[in-house]
Amino acid sequence: MLLVADYLAFSTRAFLGIGRGAIGIERLRVHATFVQMVNVGVNSFPTVGMACFFMGLVLAMQGADQLQQLGALDKVADLVSFSMLREIGPLITAVVIIGRSGSAITAEIGTMKVNQEIEALEVMAIDPFRFLVVPRLLAMLVMCPCLTMLGIALGLVGGWILGVYSLHLNPYFYVTNTLAAVDLKDLYSGLFKGLVFGGLIATISCYYGMRVEGGAEGVGKNTNRAVVVALLSVLAMDAVLTAFFFFAI
Amino acid sequence: MASSPLPDARKTPLKPKFAIEVRNLVKRFGKRTVLNKINFKLPLGGVLAIMGGSGCGKTTLLRHLIGLVQPDEGEIFIMGREISRLSQNELYELRRSYGMLFQGGALLQSLTVGENVALPILESSRVDEKVASLVVKMKLELVGLTGFEHLKPAQISGGMVKRVALARALALDPDLIFCDEPSAGLDPIMTAVIDKLICDLTEKLGISVAVVTHDMASAFRIASHMIFLFEGQVVAEGSPGEIRQNPDARLQQFINGLPDGPIPLRLSKDDYLKELLGKNSS
Question: Within a 13 Å sphere around the CA of B143, how many CA atoms are in the beta-carbon half?
Answer without folding.
Answer: 30
